[in-house]
Amino acid sequence: MSAVQLALFAAPPLRGWPRLQAFLVDRIKRAALRQLHASRAGELLLLRIYLIGEEATEQTLQQEMLANPPAWLERQVQQHLREEQEHSALFAAAMRERGMQPPSELRPDRLSQAKIRRWQRIARRHAPHFQQGLLVPAYAIGLCAEQMAERVLSRHCAVLPAEHPLQGLLGRVLSDERKHVRLCMRTLGLSVAEHEQPRLQQLLAEARAVDRAWGVSGAVGMYLAGVALRLRAGGWRRSN
Ligand SMILES: [Fe+2]
Ligand SMILES: [Fe+2]
């Protein structure tokens, strides 16, 4: 992938309020992670959030990308799906190791559901403007979701001590999500005609704005949940 294409698809540098917002979200989420890791219930909540995210990605792949993929993409989509299923299995196993059976049906929280609905509306609105139809918005939104996963997991790995038992799992998923970011970029580069680029940039900007909405309140909610679970556990500290 050329440097020009990379620059087209990388998240652009933020300015003004969005930049301050991203800074605040990062700081609050770092503090939230420390709180959540201070109790077993908090750690389980984090694993559950990741599991829900992975299952939502699987569903999107199955419903929107696997539903009718062009022949040249079929193998790639199948491989992508296998890797997301592996991630779900790894998070579910980590929950079991910590004494919790993952619920058979997991639904994203209301905030995430609202985000997914807004992403779907954006995809439907832009799809008719691309030769490849819904495939382009599906991969553009997929790119934003994979970039978000990369950001979230990088932060988590940076906050945890190097010897923490979850480092291996998070590091492995992170390296796959980085691969998925490149895969979405490559697929967009192959499916979008030159004259469709401005429309793609508009679509990416809208999808990223949805990702940023509720950022601070979501981070504060995560922090408060971490504090509440730590207090309820009476300062439980992990001993392994
Ligand atoms: Fe994943
Ligand atoms: Fe992924």
Automatic annotation (TrEMBL):
Superkingdom in the source lineage: Bacteria
Protein name: Ferritin-like domain-containing protein
Organism: Aquipseudomonas campi
